[in-house]
Amino acid sequence: MKRLLCVLAPLLLQVLAAAPPALAAGDGIALTVARGTTPGDVALGWTGAPAGPCTVYRSTKYSPNAGIGNALATTSAASWMDRPPSGSIFFYEITVAPFWTRDISASPADTASSSVIANLSTAGGFGNGRLQIDFSIKALNADAHTPFRTFHATSDFYSPDCDQVPVPVPAVGSLEGESGYACVHDGDCHLIVYHQPTNKLYEMWRANITATAFDGGCLAVWDVDRTYTAAGRGEQCSSADAAGMPIAPLLFTADELAAGAINHAIRFILPNPRMQQGVYVHPATHAGAPSGSGLPPYGARLRLRADYPLASLPDEGTRTIARALQKYGMILADGGNIALTAMSDQYSTAKWSTVLPSGSTGLQAIHVTDFTMIDAGTRISLTYDCVRTP
Fold it and tell me: Count of CB atoms within 10 A of residue 228's CB?
């Protein structure tokens, strides 16, 4: 599956331009360029992008969505100084990594991290009292031949948060926790489908598809080609996940463990009483029913301590997961008892029994107190008054 929400904003700059232009690109990302304080220098700045890091590129040949070469640097600042060679017209390109692929191994801790972690530990730590893995969510692929089906919105569909549009449904597939498309066990029954021809991700909560009907809860359609700001699909807006974020990019897979690396953050959940009530933080745009105090808010990102003794873990699969938790962390996305969410191996090449012989509890020696909550930014008061991003 392709990565989602990659922010790409090109800017054309004539180095000797007399006036510093200000251009808008992408969804709400404003870029500015001006002469630097030293002759020949160029000052670039940008606002509206999600929190860094940003990678700045410079090239005499513009080729969007391709490697334009000459990466100047990766920076968490919102500005950059450059001195390009004289006598040419240069293109500058600024890319902001999607929130789930950002390396947060050196990110500062949140000022409340120590107290939040201590309170979470006192409250019981992770659901079921251990760092456990859920393998039940599936992600399906749809091609140009996959039919689209309309659905009847149930009481689990919220307006304007959710999208009521036809959904591609592959002939062969299944819901979270089910062997087919019928939601017979009354679980979350997520339906996740990536539609390759349109580069869109369809994620639905509480789907139920039978021979005669298609009933659906909240559907969130994510445009993979779109530049999303920190507000995602809209402030106070839910998605197929209570945090309002996409689900699929945060799932780790058996194939990733077979390859030896997980290069993104991981989705995790906590029981409602162990999450901070009344607020959320970006990249979340919503919260479910958190009821705790002094605890992690929806959207919080926890990082495993760098000195955790990886050799003490039972197999290479658990060590691969732990390394991802050190570099990319895990992001609080929903309420429940099984902390980490992996993708089912029903449609993967590698199988969990092979790449993770310790099974769902192989990480149970890792405790809440082994984590730091990185800087979570502004706490946003939870109102449930969704305002969709145009």
Answer: 22
Whole-number Å distance between alpha carbons of 67 and 358: 40
**Structure confidence at residue 163 (pLDDT):** 98
One-character DSSP codes across 33-67: EEE-SSTT-EEEEEESSPS--EEEEEESS--TTS-
| Residue from 238, 194, 237, 230 nearest 102 by CA | 230
How far is Cα 250 from Cα 185, in angstroms, rounded to an integer? 24
How does the average pLDDT of the chain come out, rounded? 87
**Domains in the chain with CATH codes:** 7-97 (2.60.40), 113-388 (no CATH)
**Residue 210 vs residues 146, 193, 194, 206: alpha-carbon distances, Å:** 17, 17, 21, 13
CA distances from 212 to 152, 215, 216, 261 (A): 12, 10, 14, 42
Token pair of 357, please? Answer: 């012989």
Biggest alpha carbon–alpha carbon distance for the chain: 71
- DSSP element (H, E) containing 343: strand 340-343
By three-state DSSP, how is residue 33 classified? strand
d(CA 191, CA 193): 7
Contact 162, 238 (CB under 8 A): yes
Cα 378 to Cα 56, 284, 289: the distances in Å are 26, 12, 19
Q: How many C-beta neighbours within 10 Å does residue 357 have?
A: 13
The number of residues in the chain equals 390
Q: Could you report the per-residue pLDDT of 219-251, keeping only the tens digit for each?
A: 999 998 776 778 899 999 999 999 999 999 999
For 155: left if phi > 0, alpha if psi spans -120 to 50, otherwise beta; the answer is: alpha
